[in-house]
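Hi R.,

Here are the chain sequences for the assembly we discussed:
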Amino acid sequence: MLKYLIKRLMLFVIVIFGVVTVTFFLSHVIPADPVGAILGENAPLELVEKMEKELGLDLPLDQQYIRYLKGIINWDFGMSLRTQRPVSKDMRIYFPATMELAVFALIIAMFFGIIIGIVSAVKRNQLPDNLSRIFSLVGISMPAFWLGLLFILILYYHLGLIPAGGRLSPSISPPPIFSGLYLLDSLIAGEIETFWDALYHLIGPGLVLGWIQTAYICRVTRSSMLEVLNEEYIRTARVKGLKEKIVIFRHAFKNALIPVVTMVGISFGYLLEGSVLTETVFGYPGLGRYAVNSFLSLDLNSVIGSVTLIAIVYALSNLIVDMLYAVLDPRIKY
Amino acid sequence: MVQELLLEIKDLEVNFYTYRGVVKALNGVNLKINKGEFFGLVGETGCGKSVTASAVLNLVQNPGKIEKGEIIFQGKELLKMDKEEIRKNVRGKEITMIMQYPIAALNPVVNNGDQISEALLANKNINKDEAKKRTIELLREVNIPEPEKIARQYPHQLSGGMAQRVMIAMMLSTKPALLIADEPTTALDVSIQAQVLSLLKDLVVKHKTTILLITHDLSVVAETCDRVGVMYAGDMVEIGEVDQIIHNSRHPYTRGLINSIPSEKSRELIEIRGSVPDLVEPPTGCRFHPRCDYAKPICKKGKPQMLEIEKNHFAACFLYEK
Amino acid sequence: MNKEISQNWITSWNKRHSSEISDIKETLYLIRKSPLTIIGLGIILILIIVAIFAPYIAPHNPETMHLDKRLALPSEEHLLGTDELGRDILSRIIYGAGVALKIMFIVLAIDLPLGILLGLIAGYFGGWIDEIIMRIADIFMAFPRLILAMAIGAALGPNLKNTMIAIALTMWPVYARLARGETLSIKERTFIEAERALGSSNLKILIFNILPLCFSTLIVRATLDMGNIIRIAAGMSFLGLGAQPPTPDWGLMVSSGRNFLINQWWVPTFPGFAILLTVFGFNLLGDGIRDISDPHLRRGKK
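And here is the predicted structure of the full complex:
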């Protein structure tokens, strides 16, 4: 088992390296004229040269690469032209916001998705199953940005149930930064009003992301359970005279868990993607929205920073999922 | 020796509602098994032997349905009992089953010992430690070396033969009155087959369990069973003591089965002509008549009843109708 | 005499191909029994028809701006209202169908051949070729799809063509993996050894023996992905990285209509609904096809 973990870790390192290289390729090699795109076509020559120097574009390609790698190891991506702050500082502010949203949505999704999935499989082709299948099919077909807009139109404008956007109401100030997660920090600092306000603001984007993720997890749970319920050992469990509840949870679900865990890992990737769209729609100040703004303004440094960070987080969640495999399935040896 | 009736199946009919139509899997099966017997149920694949076993355990699943019939076990009518009653007091406790692919029949993510203990804890009033102790004893009884080690291991680490022993230990742990063995050795190597069968025989004698052995292999039956029932296409066609069936079979189908076993004397491979019928549109009357060399016009019309040929020997064939 | 001969031939043909025939019968039965698949199929067919016959179906020209009737409520003349430049929304949605389908086809046209090629090579030749291709695939898969598509799209320049390339680049690893898996399992089968013994070249074996067997798995996967392609492309256009004005792309329409969400809700809502319906239809179909090709479902009676 240790061998497997080490092998997996090495794969992780190779992949991160590859990710970093691809990002370099995308940001330094392909764009024809990043400076022109930023400063405009008629910028005065000294300004162009100054920018080129700042971005390191005057150096030969391999030196650019080394400089770039050095930067990443030090977690220094340079300055964001748009916000006029170091990119790493920006990320320290925005990243926890996205994490909070993602975890919030994931908890909702795991809870509802798994339960609905199990019920669906057990009551196959009956009403609860058919309803849940349609619900989850709609969920995975839903464009997140459109759902967000609908939520704002109906839940905010017409029903007044959620705020228009953002992370906190204008009148409330953020809690003292401990983890960057407002829910956690406000509880630690004892600022209950802040806690509720932060929670209130999480509902809109959280439910949008949550609904979509619930759909994915529900589907995978259902199909995994259906497969497992057909296995011989389920028959054995029933022959032993065990209660149906035990057959379903201790025997079926425990085996169905593995694909579900994979899906939770993949969900994390979808959440990171979805956050890009959802944060934009709700004006939620997270990494997703930051990334979008960076792309649209061709802010090279923050583009590199956001993409690298998101890819690392995603690769890490996959690594954790793979490690969980080895724990959950005694059949995995190598 | 007084024969006490343990299990009686009367006119059992089971249908499966599939995409191709209604599969009439059991066409009115009759069967009697006495206490302490080693009863063999023989037939080709698809004749309904496993469905019969499922019916006894009340585990006939969608799209199957028990249409009519009676299953009387220890004097109680199972088909009229409450399903929860059957689960609690009959299944796992009084009737258990071992299956054809033992490794697949074990939960891959639970260790072997725990799976056996689970059977004990669910059906007997003992605590965890006692169950653990008993599990090790059981593993020893089924001739598994280093039982503590095996108990900690997982099913995928076992060989087929070992896994089947674990299953036997599990299914005999609660000292059931009836153990159903559904093709228990078919998927095992021939040498292991013999071991497992003789193990079963020993345990049966020791615990006075009644065994219903389901197989398509007549030689296995000849070696181990006291009485035999032969099934064809959802019907019980002949029942008798093992010697009667092997040496004095009366139903044309049984004859055909026995004749088709290659022997040292004849080098010929004798087969029964034709093939197993489609049970969605089974032949009318006696289901074997299209393949029978002795078929008469009446065989198409009605279903033959079980008639006594000699003491304890019955066959369902119009040849014997007076 | 002729009638007899042809009847005999028909009977014997039926007999010889009885297993294929029963396969097809079973497939048709399963399709019939799955109302969801039929609905999905229906939605897709309607979509294709709308896309092909757009010029005949659309009540207005999608680019004509009626500046006096900007942001008009749905009415008889403009069934779904008009957008901020006075263009008929219904007509734009109808033309948008073609845009969406075009994107989907082009992405698949790039990905399927590319993925199959790389997968076949990796699986068949193994060794370091396999390692390299698979590591590259891993790296591409290490990015969440939309993020990678955004990065590639931004690097190449925001337009529809680059969006299609970007999405294609995010998805090829999946097909390569699948093709490789199939190749690996087929490679070891004895009939391949037989071919080699007959002297067939590697290329011949790859194309004529292995490729046809991979096809069905990959087609099933492709149908599952069709909806996703449209959804991701819509997301890209929404963010401004995909289709550019005045293309009647649904994602773009939602984005430009966003400012009018509150008071003229129909402007962003209807195009978004078109996206939902389309993706939903593809997913229904994909699910149905996957269920039907599932060997479990095809188990006969016990």
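Confidence is low (pLDDT under 50) at residues 298-302 of chain C. Chain C has twelve helices and no strands.

Let me know if anything looks off.

Best,
T.
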